[in-house]
Specification:
Elements: H1 2-36, E1 41-42, H2 46-60, H3 65-73, E2 79-84, E3 87-92, H4 95-104, E4 109-111, H5 115-122, H6 131-142, H7 147-173, H8 180-197, E5 205-206, E6 209-210, H9 211-226, H10 229-234, H11 236-240, H12 245-273, H13 277-281, H14 285-294, H15 300-331, H16 336-346, H17 355-359, H18 362-374, E7 384-386, E8 390-392, E9 395-397, E10 402-405
Parallel strand pairs: 1-2, 3-10
Antiparallel strand pairs: 2-3, 4-7, 5-6, 7-10, 8-9
Helix pairs in contact: 5-9, 7-8, 8-15, 9-12, 9-15, 12-15, 15-18
The protein binds protoporphyrin IX containing FE.
The site of protoporphyrin IX containing FE has 15 residues, from helix 15.
């Protein structure tokens, strides 16, 4: 019994030391390392980070508010350092540093940290792939971004918008409030769904929630969990084991999301096998991917993950851009007459919305670009981890440091 307690105490002590090392000692040493290189450093305590970050989601509906403020305040710096919980993160600003990071030294970094948990969500999608696999997938997917196919997509966008705007008119008539970002998310999810699957899936519900909203909520939960103390201390694989009840629920929902997507894919595959002319004529991304699958280039898991990648990558970003554009219009009413004039000139007949006409809308495009500059939906690119010590010009990035590019 005595021996057991000795071993147990030793195990507990080792565990405490590992946790202390990961949460405090290692981050502290890295932060000191960057301070010695005279980079501006903005550290939030661990508890401060978790309280503050989650508080921001409630107060600003923006997980990245703190980082966005730092980026704004440090535009004149070459780079700065802050922390995502116990992970010191270098934000690169100067173009020459960015060029080295993304081009000349890109193989010294790998996509990882925050997306570690997301990998459990779908690690075979473009977002997560690296190197040669990423190149091959980009090549396959670029097929769906051909100009003629994108041109066809415009009619889907118009249709989805018209359908949803009818709901807006009704709400306005009944003086009902709408959560506009959720509405735009729904529309973007629907457009991505039609682009990918070639058909509407608005009518599909999971537990009484419309499918895109359900996947979007699930994604938010995954993001929350990816910066929880559990994940940051023990890693994403601990969460994926589903030992704690809320981890178990998360893992089970991720499986459900994938199972629903698998069902869509199987339905389409069967339709294609039946040689239906309608399906053969469809040139959505799923049809393109299924053709590649027939040539053994892709597995069904790859396609499921690709669909989830597109849905997640396209929904929140587009919805934020649209919502913020509306906000900036409301704050700058002097821009409205010119915007209106350009729209009515280009679309005398609203049923004739085309890609060519959209591309001619210079003022409108500038307005959207300025919105992205002022309030980017995603303030930086995916974090990459240095897989070894690496020099970016005169700045040494230590192995294990998260690194990104500010926008
Ligand atoms: C305002 C809208 C958008 C913004 C601000 C945005 C932003 C981003 C950012 C920052 C990345 C990460 C790049 C990196 O770390 O390498 C990314 C990647 C990606 N986005 Fe978007 N995005 C937007 C819209 C969309 C839409 C509508 C879709 C899908 C229809 C989409 C699909 C993707 C995909 C598939 C990737 C991975 C690309 C790759 O690794 O090659 N995005 N996006």
């Amino acid at each position: 019994m005595g021996a057991f307690f000795t071993w147990f105490s030793a195990f507990l002590l080792a565990l405490v030391l590992v946790v202390l090392h990961r949460l405090l000692i290692k981050p502290y040493r890295l932060i000191q390392f960057y301070k010695r290189q005279k980079l501006p450093v903005f550290v939030k305590s661990l508890k401060g980070f978790i309280d503050y970050q989650w508080g921001l989601v409630t107060t600003h509906d923006d997980f990245y508010y703190f980082q966005k403020q730092l980026i704004k305040q440090n535009r004149s710096e070459r780079a700065f350092v802050t922390n995502i919980g116990p992970k010191p993160t270098v934000y690169l600003i100067e173009p020459t540093l960015i060029k080295e990071f993304l081009m000349d030294k890109h193989d010294c970094f790998e996509k990882a940290p925050l997306i570690g948990l997301l990998k459990r969500f779908g690690d075979r999608g473009l977002f997560m792939l690296e190197g040669q696999e990423w190149k091959q997938r980009r090549k396959i997917i670029s097929e769906a971004f051909r100009y003629d196919l994108l041109r066809e997509m415009v009619s889907h966008v118009v249709k989805v918008t018209e359908e949803r705007f009818q709901k807006f008119s009704l709400a306005a008539k009944n003086k009902e409030e709408l959560n506009i970002i959720k509405e735009f998310e729904f529309m973007a999810g629907e457009v991505v769904g039609r682009f990918f699957l070639g058909k509407s899936f608005t009518d599909i519900n999971v537990d009484g929630t419309q499918i895109t909203a359900w996947i979007s909520n699930l994604f938010v939960q995954v993001i929350y969990e990816s910066v929880s103390l559990w994940t940051l201390t023990f890693g994403p694989s601990f969460v994926a084991k589903g030992i704690l009840p809320h981890h178990k629920e998360l893992v089970s929902n991720v499986r459900r999301g994938k199972a629903i997507t698998r069902e869509f894919i199987n339905q389409r595959r069967e339709a294609l096998l039946k040689d239906s002319t309608t399906d053969k004529e469809q040139k959505d991304l799923l049809t393109i991917l299924l053709a590649q699958q027939a040539e053994n280039q892709l597995t069904t898991e790859d396609i499921i993950d690709e669909y989830l990648t597109f849905l997640i990558a396209g929904m929140d970003t587009s919805a934020r851009l649209e919502t913020l554009a509306l906000y900036f219009i409301s704050q700058n009413p002097q821009c409205l007459p010119r915007l209106k004039e350009e729209i009515s000139k280009a679309f005398e007949d609203p049923s004739q919305v085309t890609l060519e006409k959209l591309n001619q809308m210079e003022y409108f495009t500038s307005f959207l670009k300025e919105t992205l500059r002022m309030a980017p939906p995603s303030p930086h690119i995916t974090f990459r981890t240095a897989i070894k010590d690496v020099m970016l010009k005169d700045i040494m990035i230590k192995k294990g440091t998260w690194t990104t590019v500010c926008k």
